[in-house]
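stage 2 :: seqdesign
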C-alpha cells in the first residue's frame, strides 16, 4: 500500500473568535507553502474543529501518515502532554494510520526576525523622536508552570533587546508565573526610560493579549511622563508560517525532537523536582469543541481554581485538578495571586 502523507496543525483553542480565525489563516498559509500535502488543523479545547475532526478529514482524503505539529511557540504542558495524548489515542484507535509528532516553533532565527518585525512596525509608527538607547523593551509571554518554557521567553527578549539596540529589556508574563504584566510594567517604569515598548510574544489574539494591552493602558495612565507603545503580536507574519513549514519537514528528516534538556518531566529542575516522570495524558477532553460559536458554551461554564500550564483562566466554576501538578509559586505576590480580583480572593 502506498503511503500518503498529510499535515496536521494542533492548536490550543480559544473562546475568542478572532483568535480561532487567525489560527485558521496560519493553517491556510501552510497549505500554500506545502501544496503537495493535504493540510488540516484542530484544537484541544474551547473551539472547533477539535483535533480528532482534523485527523478524520485527513483520513477521509486517503492519508495514511500524518505529520503533526503543535501550533505553539514553546513546549510546556500542552505540547508535551496534552496534544501527544490525543494523537496517540487516535492512532491507537485506527489501525494502519500513523501519526508522527514534530516540535514546537521554539527559539528560531526566523521567529526572532518575525518578532523583530513586529517591534519595528510599532517603533516606526511611533516615530523616531526617542532614541533606542532611551527606550525599554518589555516582552510579555504567556506564562506556564514549566520553567523551561518561561525561560525561552526571556531568551527571546534578550535577542530582541541586543539585536535591536534597546536601552534595557525585561520579561513579564500574562499568567501562571511571575512577574505578571502590571507589576512588571510598574517595575519597568521605575528605571527612568522615556519610552517603553510592550510586545506580547503571542501567536494569536485572545483574552490574554487584550489583558496585556489593558494593563499597559492602566500603568501608562499612572506614568504620563513615559510613552508606552503597544506592539502587535506575531499572527501570520510570513516568517512564522515558514517556521511551521520547517517543523513539518523536520519530521521527515529526523530533526523533529523537542529540546528536553531542561524539561521538568525528565530532569530534576530546581523547584519542580516532584514532577519528573509524571504520566503523559490530556486533561482537555471535557472542553473539546466548547467555546466560540457554541450556544451551550456552557452548561460547563467554568473557572478552574487552580494554576497550570494554560497560563489563562478557563473560567471553570467546578473544582477539579485535571491531574496537573500544582505550580510551586502559585501565591507569589508578583505572580498569579496578583491577578485575582477582590471578588475572587474572598
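stage 2 :: out
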Amino acid at each position: 500500500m502506498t503511503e500518503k502523507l498529510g499535515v496536521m496543525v494542533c492548536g490550543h483553542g480559544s473562546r475568542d473568535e478572532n483568535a480561532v480565525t487567525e489560527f485558521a489563516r496560519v493553517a491556510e498559509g501552510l497549505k500554500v507553502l506545502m501544496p503537495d500535502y493535504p493540510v488540516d488543523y484542530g484544537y484541544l479545547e474551547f473551539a472547533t474543529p477539535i483535533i480528532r475532526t482534523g485527523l478524520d478529514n485527513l483520513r477521509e482524503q486517503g492519508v495514511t501518515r500524518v505529520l503533526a505539529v503543535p501550533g505553539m511557540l514553546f513546549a510546556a504542558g500542552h505540547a508535551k502532554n496534552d496534544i501527544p495524548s490525543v494523537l496517540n489515542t487516535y492512532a491507537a484507535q485506527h489501525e494502519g494510520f500513523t501519526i508522527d509528532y514534530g516540535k514546537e516553533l521554539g527559539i528560531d532565527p526566523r521567529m526572532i526576525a518575525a518578532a523583530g518585525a513586529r517591534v519595528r512596525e510599532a517603533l516606526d509608527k511611533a516615530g523616531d523622536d526617542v532614541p533606542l538607547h532611551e527606550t525599554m523593551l518589555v516582552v510579555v509571554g504567556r506564562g506556564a508552570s514549566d520553567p523551561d518554557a518561561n525561560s525561552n521567553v526571556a531568551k527571546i527578549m534578550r535577542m530582541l533587546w541586543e539585536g535591536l539596540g534597546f536601552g534595557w529589556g525585561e520579561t513579564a508574563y500574562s499568567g501562571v508565573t511571575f512577574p505578571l504584566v502590571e507589576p512588571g510594567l510598574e517595575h519597568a517604569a521605575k528605571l527612568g526610560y522615556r519610552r517603553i515598548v510592550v510586545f506580547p510574544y503571542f501567536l494569536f489574539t485572545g483574552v490574554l493579549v487584550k489583558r496585556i494591552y489593558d494593563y499597559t493602558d492602566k500603568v501608562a495612565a499612572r506614568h504620563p511622563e513615559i510613552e508606552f507603545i503597544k506592539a502587535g503580536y506575531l499572527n501570520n507574519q510570513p516568517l512564522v508560517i515558514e517556521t511551521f513549514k520547517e517543523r513539518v519537514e523536520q519530521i521527515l528528516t529526523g530533526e523533529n525532537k523537542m529540546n528536553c534538556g531542561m524539561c521538568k518531566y525528565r530532569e530534576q529542575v530546581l523547584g519542580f523536582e516532584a514532577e519528573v516522570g509524571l504520566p503523559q495524558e490530556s486533561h482537555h477532553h471535557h472542553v473539546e469543541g466548547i467555546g466560540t460559536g457554541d450556544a451551550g458554551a456552557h452548561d460547563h461554564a467554568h473557572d478552574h481554581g487552580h494554576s497550570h500550564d494554560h497560563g489563562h483562566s478557563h473560567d471553570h466554576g467546578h473544582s477539579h485538578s485535571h491531574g496537573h501538578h500544582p505550580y510551586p509559586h502559585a501565591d507569589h505576590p508578583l505572580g498569579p495571586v496578583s491577578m485575582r480580583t477582590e471578588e475572587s480572593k474572598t
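stage 3 :: structure notes
- The two ends are 62 Å apart (CA to CA).
- The longest helix spans residues 109-126.
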